[in-house]
Amino acid sequence: MNKILNVITKPFRRLFSFFGAYGNRAGRVRFHVLLVFVLAIIAGSFDYSRPWNKSADFINLQKNKVQFVNKIPNIPQFTQQFPFRLGLDLLGGTHLVYEADLSQINQDDYSSSMDGVRDVIERRVNLFGVTEPLVQVNKVGNHYRLIVELAGIKDVNQAIKMIGETPMLQFKTEQATAERDRILAKYLTADEVEQFKDEICLNGQATSAFLVSYGEDPCYAGTELTGKYLDNAETVFDQNTGVPQVSLQFNDEGAQIFQIITKINTGKTVAIYLDGLPISMPRVQEEIIGGKAQITGKFTTQEVKELVQRLNAGALPVPITLVNQQTVGASLGNDSLQKSLRAGLYGLLAVAIFMILYYRLPGLLSVVALGIYTVITLAIFKLGSVTMTLAGIAGFILSVGMAVDANVLVFERIKEEFKAGRGYAGAVEEGFWRAWLSIRDSNASSLITCVILFWIGTSIVKGFALTLGIGILVSMFSAIVVTRSLLKIFIGTRVENWRFLFNAPKK
Q1: So what's the pLDDT on residue 448?
Q2: CA pseudo-torsion sign 60, 64, 65, 67
Q3: Choice among 44-53, 475-484, 490-499 with the minimum mean pLDDT
Q4: CA dist., res. 179 & res. 184, Å (int)
Q5: If phi over 0 gives left and psi between -120 and 50 gives alpha, with beta otherwise, what is residue 336?
Q6: N or C end: fewer C-beta atoms under 10 angstroms in the chain?
Q7: Does domain 169-312 have CATH number 3.30.70.420?
Q8: CA within 13 Å, CB half, 56
Q9: Concatenated DSSP letters for 191-246?
Q10: pLDDT of residue 331
């Protein structure tokens, strides 16, 4: 029995022996190094999960063959749902620039009008299943422009048509029960029809899901009343309860059509559709005369404002004109990606060779720290859904250079402390402290520049600023925490007396 206990506890005793008592400095340093490497392994496996997943599959398979051991939970796998998000210049697609005509809009309404245009365009491109479309408003002087990037869309004419068509605003009435059941029966089993027929038509999200899946509306039938008859929609509040509501105003022709619809459908639902999908399903309380209506419900003020914006944006709030268009092929984007990665790899290799040859052991440790820096930064890019463009990759590569620069400052300071007669422990501590001030100031100024570029720059410049900023923050962690811990692990060992490993003068 004692032998079995010794075998089981031996790895733990070895581990605790390696760390020593955590209260002493050597134990703390070794523990910190272990944490850093564990973090690096997790980040690296998240960046490129195939080796981890294959190893986990193999171990889990062997484990499950052994009795008793198979009760131990399986090693988890990293999900494949977090791929690197590639920009238009790497994935290929269409880049469109529109200029808005705001001549008929009050200056105070410029911002809200452009937000309405952006919302309309986003809805339209999302209906086409475009992966991660980019739609943003850009102001250049007194000109407002709308930038649309559609990754994966190679047909520029299709993209222009997609953007240029005016969204359809429709008012629909409840479908006849027999027609509803007939449409549902085309796509669902008899049991599913019986179970879901009411839920599909009472829940706007369920109606939308059915429409997207099958392209046919079982719940509501179209009417003559469309967005072309709507004059205006605005936010109002109930005078008695203060509850936010949506006020609709139709033109004269629309008022007559709306009066007929509400008279026939009193007590029933009249659904409001935008771009073929329901956005509101109010119940008609009474016949409405005069072309005015109110949409009531359990809306928050923000929801009402968004609904008003959508209704007013049924037709674009302002005219837009296409001023620039570009198409990037997938092969060209892939070629750019391969060249960028190759350039970064060659640069990283050259830096690693220089650091090892010139700084020797500290240089080797800095290369290890640089590898840890790389996997952590890439993991942050994945988790944060950072769009990787050529400019973004350039920012990342530049941040690698800044990470190396921080290590160079530290190592030169350590060499100066060696020359001043300090021992290894004192030289490392003092060298890091003296170098930290320079590292902090230089990185702070670089971060301020990144913030300014991100705030006022175009999408390309923003990508560069974002990746550079993230890289700078991680590089500070890499230089001050990772490299420092790796150097401190040799304190109290024979290595600290081998000054030639540090390219420093002998004692």
Answers
A1: 94
A2: positive
A3: 44-53
A4: 9
A5: alpha
A6: N
A7: no
A8: 13
A9: HHHHHHHHHHHH-HHHHHHHHHHHS--SSEEEEEEEGGGEEEEEEEE-TTT--EEE
A10: 60
Rounded distance between C-alpha atoms, residue 483 and residue 112, angstroms = 50
In this structure, of 223-232, 330-339, 394-403, the range with the lowest mean pLDDT score is 330-339
Q: What is the pLDDT of residues 193-209, one digit of tens each?
A: 888 888 888 887 888 88
- Mean pLDDT comparison of 72-81, 190-199, 302-311, highest-scoring range: 190-199
With beta carbons less than 8 A apart as the criterion, state whether 350 and 395 touch.
no
Contact 231, 248 (CB under 8 A): no
Of 429, 437, 370, 387, the C-alpha closest to 409 is 437
Cα–Cα distance for residue pair 52/42, rounded to 1 Å: 9
Q: Which CATH architecture has domain 93-166+320-327?
A: 2-Layer Sandwich (3.30)
Name the DSSP class of 166. Answer: P
State yes or no: pLDDT of 316 exceeds 60: yes
The angle at the Cα of 491, spanning 485 to 495, to the nearest 5 degrees, equals 110
Give the C-alpha separation, 444 to 459, whole Å.
Answer: 23
Domain residue extents for the chain: 93-166+320-327, 169-312, 330-502
Could you identify the residue written with the tokens 């070794």? 30
What is the amino acid identity at position 428? V
Instruction: Please indicate whether residue 25 or residue 315 has the higher confidence score (pLDDT).
Output: 25
Enter the CATH code of domain 330-502: 1.20.1640.10
CA dihedral over 75, 5, 23, 434, signed as positive or negative: negative
Q: Which residues contact 158 (CB under 8 A, 6 or more apart)?
A: none
Question: pTM higher than 0.85 for the full model?
Answer: no
pLDDT score of 303 = 78
CB atoms within 10 A of CB 356: 16
CA angle 93, 455, 303 (to 5 degrees): 75
Q: Which CA distances in Å does 402 have to 275, 386, 450, 478? A: 49, 20, 14, 11
d(CA 490, CA 279): 65
Most confidently modeled of 258-272, 279-293, 484-498? 258-272
- What is the C-alpha R_g of the chain? 32
**Half-sphere exposure of residue 211: CA atoms within 13 angstroms, side-chain side:** 18
- Residue showing tokens 């000109």: 143
Q: Reduced to 3 states, what is the DSSP secondary structure of residue 315?
A: coil
